């Protein structure tokens, strides 16, 4: 009853995470440029894979899926952040805010799942090089991708399902975009229960996928040790790109977890910087890693540049 007496009707939220930031215009320009480069690079990866039939293989379908996840990840929050910093639009309507929350956390969960599935793909390729194509066909790869999207949506659906029934006592978001923690803090409910619930789900997803990836690489190392020198180089080259991408994604997550557990208190600006970096960083690095480290995609890009130069 006290919730109903003190609650307010919220039609839009005020984004308050940038209240103390210095030089918002400069920060906004940097984020805008990073966002545009990351989105364009991921789109180029997707177009290259779709247009070239020779790249219609399980590994490249998984790279394409990762590029879609990265675009979703950056596009869920970057336009809002850029709008606040460059245009001064510091409000967001209720429904778009919930949609942003859902898409942001869906991208985070899908990034873990995508990297885990890619680790499984590399394990199969190294362990069963001759049977690999018959074990993991394009159809099975697509079905696996659809399945992980459905599972990810099921996990993330818990968030709007728990937020929607709650009355709101504030319309100001503490952080720089609509994530679950920021919206829960605007409600009249005690956030402890909801934070604990999401922490358990996040812990399960984070460590399950990370342990799965680590075990996959453990078995890959075992197979590499038993292989010849030429096979070792080939296997190392095959797995290195994925390994770099895994480090780029999981390192910021573990840094945040370790800092929180150690009781390190970050200022709001420092926390916002860490959050923005953990979203934009992997989405910017991933497409360039796969373009530069994957022979077929590198060759395709060189061919395009060659045609452009000859036509000029």
UniProtKB/TrEMBL annotation:
What the entry lists under SMART domains is as follows: 7TM_GPCR_Srsx (SM01381)
Q: G-protein coupled receptors family 1 profile domain location, by residue?
A: 41-290
Location comes to: Membrane
- Membrane topology designation: Multi-pass membrane protein
Main site of residence?
Answer: membrane
> InterPro entries from the entry?
GPCR1_Superfamily_Member, GPCR_Rhodpsn, GPCR_Rhodpsn_7TM, Olfact_rcpt
Keywords associated with the record: Membrane, Transducer, Transmembrane, Transmembrane helix
Cross-referenced Pfam families, in alphabetical order? Answer: 7tm_4
**Single GO molecular function:** odorant binding
Record field: transmembrane: 27-50, 62-89, 101-120, 141-163, 200-226, 238-259, 271-292
Where in the sequence is the signal peptide annotated? none
Q: Does the keyword Membrane apply?
A: yes
NAD as UniProt keyword: no
Query: Which PROSITE patterns does this UniProt record tie to the protein?
Result: G_PROTEIN_RECEP_F1_2
Listed GO cellular component terms?
A: membrane
Name the PANTHER family on file: G_PROTEIN_RECEP_F1_2 DOMAIN-CONTAINING PROTEIN, OLFACTORY RECEPTOR 10K2
Q: What is this protein called?
A: G-protein coupled receptors family 1 profile domain-containing protein
């Amino acid at each position: 009853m006290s919730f109903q007496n003190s609650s307010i009707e919220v039609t839009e939220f005020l984004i308050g995470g940038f209240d103390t930031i210095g030089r918002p215009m400069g920060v906004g320009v940097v984020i805008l440029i990073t966002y545009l480069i990351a989105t364009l690079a991921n789109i180029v990866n997707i177009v290259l894979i779709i247009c070239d039939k020779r790249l219609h293989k399980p590994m490249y379908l998984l790279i394409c899926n990762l590029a879609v996840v990265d675009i979703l990840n950056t596009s869920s929050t970057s336009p809002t952040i850029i709008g606040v910093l460059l245009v001064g639009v510091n409000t967001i309507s209720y429904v778009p805010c919930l949609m942003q929350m859902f898409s942001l956390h869906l991208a985070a969960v899908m990034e873990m799942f995508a990297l885990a599935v890619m680790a499984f793909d590399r394990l199969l390729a190294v362990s069963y090089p001759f049977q690999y194509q018959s074990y993991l066909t394009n159809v099975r790869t697509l079905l696996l991708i659809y399945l992980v999207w459905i599972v990810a949506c099921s996990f993330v659906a818990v968030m709007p399902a728990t937020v929607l029934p709650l009355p709101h006592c504030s319309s100001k978001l503490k952080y720089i975009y609509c994530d679950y923690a920021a919206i829960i803090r605007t409600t009249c409910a005690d956030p402890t229960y909801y934070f604990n619930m999401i922490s358990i789900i996040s812990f399960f997803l984070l460590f399950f996928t990370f342990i799965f990836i680590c075990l996959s690489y453990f078995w890959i190392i075992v197979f590499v040790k038993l292989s010849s020198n030429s096979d070792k180089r080939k296997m190392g080259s095959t797995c290195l790109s994925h390994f770099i991408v895994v480090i780029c994604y999981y390192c910021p997550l573990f840094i945040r977890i370790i800092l929180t557990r150690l009781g390190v208190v970050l200022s709001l600006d420092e926390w916002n910087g860490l959050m923005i970096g953990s979203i934009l960083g992997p989405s910017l690095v991933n497409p360039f890693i796969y373009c530069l480290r994957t022979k077929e995609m590198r060759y395709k890009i060189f061919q395009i540049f060659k045609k452009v130069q000859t036509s000029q």
